[in-house]
Amino acid sequence: MKSYIQHIDQWLRRRIRQIIWKRWKKVKTRYKSLMKLNVPKPKAWEWANTRKGYWRIACSHILHRSITNKILEQVGLKNLVHLFEHAHLSY
């Protein structure tokens, strides 16, 4: 069950990164948003101009370095693995 929860957690985080990237439709918006996430200017411009699809970008180092798991947790996304371990240990 734990490996299944890990798989679901990874997929969910990837899906949320995809949605965030999709909301930043224009290159200008992506560039500005990546700059706000402390990505260097040349890399932000390079990554903002990528032609790869949303799902592929969601799994790339582009978003993993800028939209980290820590940021997702600060926004309110719960870590399913930690919740499972906490529930499993309480029994």
Structural class: mainly alpha
What is the CA–CA distance across the termini?
15 Å
User: How big is the Rg?
Assistant: 15 Å
Low-confidence stretches: none
Strand content: under 5%
Helix/strand order, N-terminal first = HHHHHHH
Provide the helix percentage.
Answer: over 70%
DSSP E strands, number:
0
Backbone shape: elongated
On the 0-100 scale, what is the average pLDDT? Answer: 87
Question: How would a crystallographer describe the biggest sheet?
Answer: none
Helix count equals 7
Number of domains: 1
InterPro entries: Mat_intron_G2
Organism: Sporolactobacillus nakayamae
Protein name: Group II intron maturase-specific domain-containing protein
Pfam family, one: GIIM
Keywords summarizing the entry:
Group II intron maturase-specific domain-containing protein; about 90 residues; about 0% strand; elongated; about 75% helix; 7 helices; mainly alpha; Mat_intron_G2
Mind sketching the topology for me?
Layout: H1 2-23, H2 27-36, H3 41-48, H4 54-58, H5 61-66, H6 69-75, H7 80-89
